Amino acid sequence: MFKAHSFEKGQTKTRLAVWQEIQKRTNKEISWIKDRPKCPDSFQYIWDIYLLIRRGCEAVDYQVINSYVNVTGDKLTHREVDLLIEIEYLRRTND
């Protein structure tokens, strides 16, 4: 799941977006796109924040999250911050 939302060096689209375009152009279903894990709706906003933060840095940590909050004005709960840190930990251990 993490690699699908990553960017190849120099690319502006995620791997998933590139493969979805290929799937659309060729009219052939790519099985890993259909079978990839889905984020529960109740956590989609956290995943979206994580992906937004991740685009601008190598790793998501407390300092990066603090910068995100200061720049955007978004208010995050302790639980939301913990979830962002946990997502980053899982990404690092699964890469």
Q: What can you see in these coordinates?
A:
The chain is an all-alpha fold. The chain folds into two domains: 1-38, no CATH class; 39-95, no CATH class. Helix content is 60%, strand content 0%. The chain is built from five helices and no strands. It has helices at residues 15-26, 31-35, 44-55, 62-72, 78-94. Helix 3 packs across helix 5 (78-94). The model has no long low-confidence stretch (mean pLDDT 85).
From the N-terminal CA to the C-terminal CA, the straight-line distance is 10 Å
- Gross geometry: elongated
Largest sheet: none
Specify the number of helices.
5
How much of the sequence is in beta strands? under 5%
Short summary:
The chain is mostly helical and 95 residues long. 60% of the residues lie in helices and 0% in strands.
Write the layout of secondary structure elements.
Elements lengths: L14 H12 L4 H5 L8 H12 L6 H11 L5 H17 L1
Helix pairs in contact: 3-5
Features of the shown structure:
95 residues; elongated; mainly alpha
